[in-house]
Amino acid sequence: MTATDQEKTGLGNYFIANYPPFSFWKADHLPAARAALEAPPRAGVPLGLYLHIPFCRKRCKFCYFRVYTDKNANDISVYLDAILKEVELLARSGCVGGRALDYVYFGGGTPSYLSASQLDSLMTRLRQIMPWDAAREVTFECEPGTLQKHKLETLRAHGISRLSLGVENFKPEILQYNGRAHLEEEIYRAFGWARELGFPQINLDLIAGMVGEDWDNWKRCVAKTIELAPDCVTIYQMELPYNTVFSKELKVIGADEPALVVADWPTKRAWVKYAFDELVKAGYDISSATTVVKNKATTKFVYREALWRGADMFGTGVASFGHVGGVHIQNVDTWEAYVEKLQKGELPLGRAFPTTQRDRLVREVVLLLKTGHLDVSYFRDKYGVDVRDTFRAAFDKLTAEGWLTVGETSIDCTDDGLIQIDRHLPAFFDPQYISTRYT
Ligand code: SF4
Predict the structure, then answer these.
(1) Residue 86: inside a domain, yes or no?
(2) Candidate of 51, 52, 53, 56 to mutate for ligand 1, largest count of ligand atoms within 8 Å of Cβ
(3) Is 347 contained in some domain?
(4) Which end of the chain is less packed: N or C, by CB atoms within 10 Å?
């Protein structure tokens, strides 16, 4: 592959979300998952809860998540009963060990697809099983077009502290072509209600490089974002994973010269850099390769921080990912299997991966590099190693290429290095995990 080819947006995942790669997680490892769920918790490890709400109004053409667009009210009620049953079973497992929830995350899919009354009864019941009143953060993902004011009032009443709005772009034609269900005016309406109701933190998601994007429109998107002044802005770079509508269209056309116009990686990085520069001028701080926040001291993203530092998290819902006692766990990935197992009173475990101490060290180095900063003493205290020595070859290579600097107390990405950090992270993988397919 030539350097030019590498910079095209080809098929497959580009971003690193976990380690070891998902392709190494196996059903054979489920006994380790069951043992971890019953073992007492390790001292000082926080516990979180992720709930996957897999419904969407329509499927975005770039989406590879497990989502359903054809379920009726009865199906939804069956699913919500199943997820409640799952939380009930997990709440009774030994690994809870009296811990209160530290963070909760409603993701999807589109959690805001549920009606206010469905959300009210789901959250009332969930809070009886595993209260989150003491949690540091409760995040809820929303698609702007599914929000009404009374739905947001319900969320506020149940203690949602971080509202994440999937805006992605402001231009109607781009939203429509990429299969987004919401309209531009719905963004402003939803954001206004959320501010009026006083949610402590509002995040706005954008995607750099949606099909049809260009410089002029991207600049308008950034200006509109700054005008809205959310507490946090997350900017993803468009990838083309397998099993999306776009990837199938590419396959039909021929993967070599796709007719779809997807910006190459240098262009997408230039767009992110432009957005970061403008947001920094407007008073934001860069807090990771994908996020800027209004105030770094007060605007935390507990879910991400906890997860990246190896916290426990129950991943509930169809195909959800979790991590307990050092074991990665994923639920079964079909609706039928998920519902059937829970109706029989069984946990819907699908595959797992028991990590070694070395895996956990690599995982933290890789994920925390996405914040642009590694603290040498943090790793010395937690793992008893000097990461500068343990990963000397990788750090030397990335330093020589200008992506980071290695200092006395920390390792810090350069600005250019941070924006493209994901493509350099495999340099830290152990050889057995460098595979061609990540998922
Ligand atoms: S709204 Fe999100 S989860 Fe639903 S189809 Fe679009 S990208 Fe996927």
Answers:
(1) yes
(2) 56
(3) no
(4) N
Give the H/E segment covering residue 107. Answer: strand 101-108
User: 110 CB under 6 A from ligand 1?
Assistant: yes
Domain coverage including residue 375: 356-439
Site to substitute for ligand 1 among 52, 55, 58, 60, most atoms within 8 A of C-beta: 60
Distance CA 171, CA 180 (A): 11
Higher pLDDT, 436 or 367: 367
Cα 112 to Cα 142: distance, rounded to the nearest angstrom:
5
Please indicate, yes or no, whether residues 375 and 297 belong to a single structural domain of this protein.
Answer: no
Percentage of the chain lying above the pLDDT 70 cut = 93
Number of independent structural domains in the chain = 2
Count the neighbouring beta carbons within 10 Å of the beta carbon of residue 220.
13
- 323 lies in a domain? no
Residue 197 amino acid letter? L
Q: Point out which residues pair with 412 in neighbouring strands.
A: 373, 405
Q: Residue 239 has what pLDDT?
A: 87
25-53 pLDDT per residue, tens: 999 999 999 999 999 999 999 999 999 99
According to the model, what pLDDT value does residue 157 have?
A: 98
- 109 CB near ligand 1 (under 6 Å): yes
Residue 334 belongs to a domain: no
| Ligand 1 centroid distance, CA of 387 (Å) | 37
